[in-house]
Amino acid sequence: MTSKPNILFILADDLGWGDVSYHGSDIRTPNIDRLVRNGVELDQHYVCPMCTPTRACFMTGRHPGRFGRHATSPSNPPVLPDGYETIAASLRNCGYDTGLFGKWHLGSAPEFCPNNYGFNVSHGSLAGGVDPYLHRYKEGEFSYTWHHDGELINERGHVTDLIADQAVEFIETRESPWFCYVPFTAVHTPIKPPQEWVDTYEGQHWDDDPGCDHSFKLYAAYTSHMDHAVGRFMEALQRTCQVDNTIVVFTSDNGAIPADNSGDTSKYPGRHEVLPRLGSNLPLRGRKAQLYEGGVRTPSVVSWPGTLSPGARIVHPMHIVDWMPTFCGMLDYHPDNPRWDGTDVWPLLSGATNNLPDRPIFWNFRGMNYGVRYGQWKLTTNAAMEAGSTELFNIAEDEAEQNEISRQNEDVVSELTKIINEQRSLDDTSKRPDAPA
Fold it and tell me: Looking at the whole model, is its pTM more than 0.85?
């Protein structure tokens, strides 16, 4: 590669498979849709079922359990060992300027901020999702979490706009190749879109229950507001003549929640509305915090005008752990003993091949539930691998996971169970010495 492309990686929070208009949603997402038309749609791009694990995967190219059980669920304690070479550190070693704008959630104390893991600049939430206007995480030790370069700050404005403002400034002012990672807090609860975006859905009617109808209108507005921020990034690339030299990836950290029945929003400071109807993962089964497709398969696209074929669609399974080895491979950069679980998928993205050799895509969720996708098969089970907890699906024929077929395919169950055990044996291999038990 004669020049180093810029990399813009956009990660939505809790955006479901059925929440984008290119998948048939009534929610308007014209900028994400445009990325799909002009880029390569990733039809089977997998993540983890919740926030911290997905972020650990992206930052390291490894499955989260490698860093300890606490990395397999939302975590405020630090996840990565001190000095660990992340994707940001690797790209910085290749001469990239690196910035993160949004949600970190790999260590909520300032001493574990993104700047200690390869980012030259960072701005946003050190912890998880925040109230869009208060910028506060859940009540407790890490509630005050809004920061710039690890220093806690106070700032006015809507969180989506503040994240977008910082990212746009970064995109427009770099003097060397850059890596811009934008993990939005939208569309995670609390759901509080600006009124001007709610007004764009005035007159829309989705549900005969007034509370559900109002709740979904807020969710739709919150999603469209985030989509508008994606459009702002693309306009910044246009203004600075960087479109043809920038790889843009969009995905989500996990599937949507259909409602806030758990009362999670009430844990945040301030006043919050009841939210009986939110996102959708249909026609996929499941939701956030589950290993069904709706929890771990999200709307995804990669765009690089002039290099990748517009309108292409990849149906081969991928995982967010693949991005670090892919970007490092493009740059012919080889970190010291990265122990990646991901693979270089550039041959797929570039159209050089339609398939890569089958490899296991593995999930360890909370150290309680495990799963593997291997070829056409997907197996999920509990920690004890009890027969009653084991489910097998042929995703190639049944992506909605309606036909559980473990009893009819005992040989496949045995093979995939062996793979899960092999993968479990690799967990905890890079756990911090101070990691929670």
Answer: yes
